Amino acid sequence: MKDELKVGIVGLGRGAGFIRPFTTITETKVTAICDVDENRLNNAAQQLNIEKRFTDYEKMLEDDIDIVVLATPENLHAPQSISALNAGKHVVSEVTAATSIEQCYELVRTVRKSKTKYMMAENSCYSPSNVLIKNMVRKGLFGEIYFGEGEYVHNVKSLHHDSKGNPTWRYYWQVGINRCNYATHSLGPVLQWFDERAVTVCCLGTGVHTDPEHAMEDTILMLCKTASGALIKIRIDMLSNRPPNTYYSLQGTKGCYEGTRGFGDKQKIWLADYCKNGEWKPLAEFEKEFMPERWKNPPEEALKAGNVGGEYFELRDFVDSILHDTNPPMDVYAAMDFTVPGLVSEESIANGGMPVQVPNFREID
Ligand SMILES: NC(=O)c1ccc[n+]([C@@H]2O[C@H](COP(=O)([O-])OP(=O)(O)OC[C@H]3O[C@@H](n4cnc5c(N)ncnc54)[C@H](O)[C@@H]3O)[C@@H](O)[C@H]2O)c1
Known about the structure:
Elements (H helix, E strand, L loop, with lengths): L4 E6 L8 H6 L3 E7 L3 H11 L3 E3 L2 H6 L4 E4 L6 H10 L3 E4 L7 H13 L4 E3 L7 H11 L6 E9 L15 H5 L10 H11 L3 E8 L14 E7 L4 E7 L7 E8 L2 E4 L9 E4 L9 E2 L4 H4 L2 H4 L3 H5 L5 H14 L8 H19 L5 E2 L8
Parallel strand pairs: 1-2, 1-4, 2-3, 4-5, 5-6, 7-10
Antiparallel strand pairs: 7-11, 8-9, 8-15, 9-10, 11-12, 12-13, 13-14
Helix pairs in contact: 4-5, 5-13, 6-8, 8-13
């Protein structure tokens, strides 16, 4: 194993934010960046003092980097992951993993053949409250869990056109197809709590009310049934005129959790063994006892990375999977579990909410 893993980052909007955590991880160094937008590329290179800059992604793959970080438009994630894996690079891909089922088959088959690692960077699985709930579920505090919710309500209409009025990738891939697009932030953590995948989805929408131009209905609801029979409700809305919020909930036989919907809400929890009078308690009261140790006492490296959660731990875990040759935390199968329900929901919504099977990518040839 090399002493230092060299990192190349592609797509310098969101991608620029990965530079700091990789800089603090002692075994990695960002040596190359790439963007088709030369202004963005040169600004980032100057600000962040990175020597190698590329406008051609395939040229960057010829360089001696070990890890490629993809923060490009969603429709490019699968083809660019496949090129990088074929070039012998480890891949961290932004969400979602793919924009079609065909891309998913090709990606999974490429990862299987590859000697390098692939991870989808679903950072909501690393938000402190989602990590805490996962740990409490594993310790049995909720009893048998059977219902969960995830919501992503974020009006991003301002990002659907560029400054010249041309449609951006979000216009086509986030709101240009009528299905439960961009659902991984909502579904990922909830599936991790259940430790299973969705086997069937039913999807319905509200119709288009805010702007006749886009194909995606304003609010989309996707119901996912897991193999054990649990139910997960996902709401995605990137169009309605309102403030944003991200919400999660969980129900089990011995406890329940409700996240926040903004405006001063507190994350709250009720557990039969801890709340004897049937009252809610703030989730924060359970951190001392149940938050994993590294979150309570983050290492120096994490503090230097600028936050104690999210991207740092996610990337640290990925680098460790390379160094120790273990499975990355959100491997290609988890990436499929989080991404594919949203893709197949297109068939359900087109057929009045008909239940649609979700292919199990662990079992494909
Ligand atoms: N995990 C999160 O919380 C989170 C947040 C924001 C965005 N994202 C994801 O990050 C990705 C980027 O989002 P963004 O908001 O930065 O979008 P953006 O449009 O601001 O940035 C994308 C960049 O990719 C560049 N690009 C496009 N095609 C390219 C190519 N072929 N080669 C090299 N560069 C290319 C563009 O010039 C642009 O600079 C998306 O997939 C989005 O889903 C994730």
